[in-house]
TrEMBL record:
Family per similarity comment: Belongs to the amidase family. GatA subfamily.
Species the sequence originates in: Candidatus Desantisbacteria bacterium CG1_02_38_46
Protein name: Glutamyl-tRNA(Gln) amidotransferase subunit A
Gene that specifies this protein: gatA
Pfam family, one: Amidase
Function of the protein: Allows the formation of correctly charged Gln-tRNA(Gln) through the transamidation of misacylated Glu-tRNA(Gln) in organisms which lack glutaminyl-tRNA synthetase. The reaction takes place in the presence of glutamine and ATP through an activated gamma-phospho-Glu-tRNA(Gln).
């Protein structure tokens, strides 16, 4: 195996024993990018100073600029292009920010700098993270590494594809309604959305501020825990960040799930779900039973309202967050005859179709006279959805569902039908509305070799519970078969 195909924990062992250097890994990643990126297009920007970063890393370690305990030093990591990096172009996949260079680092970037990672570049995404296929990027679509002509999922499609195509060891994404878990599922990698408040959103270009979370993509569950350790923690610059201790998530990786109670929501195994996806998930559940877990059927009765609720809350927050892009302080600008004319021209030219659709939907839902009927009502339903989970989590430890109702769909298949596209998030959205953590791990392939993902949802701040079950399952599935 080439170095760029290994997991971070495997590479770390070799680095620590001085069998390899960070430069060796960087060179392997660069070689892979040179060979495959033209077919995948995982990146919007690839940094040309990767080797320089690798050259400096040992000095940084010895001089104490990098945390000596870090398991991430010298490891190449890709960053979704809605996470601000000081001096590096950050576009959010939009024309309106095509020339935006942030003057500061997001908190997660500061943390990764302290952990000594090598930054590879900024990954492709749906414009402002609006989408489930990475097709709404102003920079062109990303292609699923599993199959030509298929989407990688979205909105963090570039981050998922970069790891799946061995163009990165790890990557960061953001998840507002499924944007980490769904592409992880479609590309066959691990992706986690932490509990709302676990990871700082400072420096993340806001989409739906009450829903957004940054999280890791990785090849396996161990790497997910390692990266989550580095990202988590309280940050006074994000008022929704929660001040509670961060456990060592790698300690949750025990293989032992005897007696763990798993809930299977009956509302998630509905008509319309792809037969191969259903079968793979059912098989995974059987496997977990054989490993000693106790499986019970549960009900989340307000599930049917989740998509509608999300598309009111998320668009309302998006329309308000996007008001700042007016051609004045930063980003794209088109001159006009007056300031209002300039605003109009800048926004008409700078935003794509989906962004405009969301601004209109959200502005309507928030407008005087409609606020109570839409935004207020959606927030009441959101509370009911959260309470569904609270009730169930009094009885079970984790909930298992498919991550996505279908495997990777064809490029163009859903682009002209927003409702169809919105429905691809039917299993992931509720976790964001409730603020709970969720992971997607590979649980099989279709007969056409398209990856299938298993979603594990947990209680608020119980990322450990999720990782424990994910790890136990992975130990079986890693050997090439996805069930006992
Ligand atoms: N696909 C969902 C949407 O379009 C979720 C996106 C996300 O999580 N950023 O809003």
């Amino acid at each position: 195996m080439e170095l760029n195909e290994l997991a971070c924990h495997e590479l770390h062992e070799k680095l620590a024993k001085k069998e390899i250097t960070s430069m060796d890994i960087v060179k392997a990643v660069e070689k892979q990018i040179a060979a495959t990126e033209k077919n995948i297009h995982a990146y919007i920007t690839i940094f040309d100073d990767m080797e320089e970063q690798a050259r400096k890393i040992v000095d940084k370690l010895t001089s104490g600029q990098v945390d000596k305990e870090s398991l991430l030093w010298g490891i190449p990591v890709a960053i979704k292009d809605n996470i601000c990096m000081d001096g590096r172009r950050t576009t959010a996949g939009s024309k309106i920010l095509h020339n935006f260079i942030p003057p500061y680092d997001a908190t997660v970037i500061e943390k990764l700098k302290n952990a000594g990672v090598i930054f590879i570049g900024k990954t492709n995404m749906d414009e402002f993270a609006f989408g489930s296929s990475t097709e709404t990027s102003n920079f062109g679509p990303t292609i699923n590494p599993s199959r030509e002509g298929r989407v990688p999922g979205g909105s963090s499609g570039g981050s998922a594809a970069a790891v799946a195509a061995d163009e990165a060891i790890l990557s960061l994404g953001s998840d507002t309604g499924g944007s980490i878990r769904q592409p992880a599922s479609l590309c066959g990698v691990v992706g986690m959305k932490p509990t709302y408040g676990r990871v700082s959103r400072y420096g993340l270009i806001a989409f739906g501020s009450s829903l957004d979370q940054i999280g890791p993509f990785s090849r396996d569950v161990t790497d997910c825990a390692i990266l989550l350790n580095a990202l988590s923690g309280y940050d006074s610059r994000d008022s929704t960040s929660v001040n509670r201790p961060v456990p060592d998530y790698t300690k949750a990786l025990t293989k032992n799930i005897r007696g763990v109670k798993i809930g299977i929501p009956k509302e998630y195994f509905i008509e319309g779900i792809n037969a191969e996806v259903k079968k793979a998930v059912e098989r995974a559940i059987e496997t977990l039973k054989k490993l000693g877990a106790e499986v019970v059927e549960i009900s989340l009765p307000h599930t049917e309202y989740a998509v509608a609720t999300y598309y009111i809350v998320a668009t309302a927050e998006a329309s308000s967050n996007l008001a700042r892009y007016d051609g004045v302080k930063y980003g794209h600008r088109k001159e006009g005859t007056s300031i209002v004319d300039m605003y109009g021209k800048t926004r008409a030219d700078g935003f794509g179709k989906e962004a405009k659709r969301r601004i209109m939907l959200g502005t309507y839902a928030l407008s005087a006279g409609y606020y109570d009927a839409y935004y207020l009502k959606a927030n009441k339903v959101r509370t009911l959805i959260r309470q569904d989970f609270e009730k169930v989590f009094a009885k079970v430890d984790v909930i298992i569902t498919p991550t996505s109702p279908t495997p990777a769909f064809k490029i163009g298949e859903k682009l002209d039908d927003p409702l169809k596209m919105y429905l691809s998030d039917i299993f992931t959205i509720s976790a964001n509305l409730a603020g709970i953590p969720g992971i997607s791990i590979p649980c099989g392939l279709t007969k056409n070799d398209l990856p299938i993902g298993l979603q594990i949802l947990g209680k608020h701040f119980d990322e450990e519970g999720i990782l424990r079950v994910a790890y136990a399952y992975e130990q079986i599935s890693k050997r090439g078969f996805y069930g006992l």
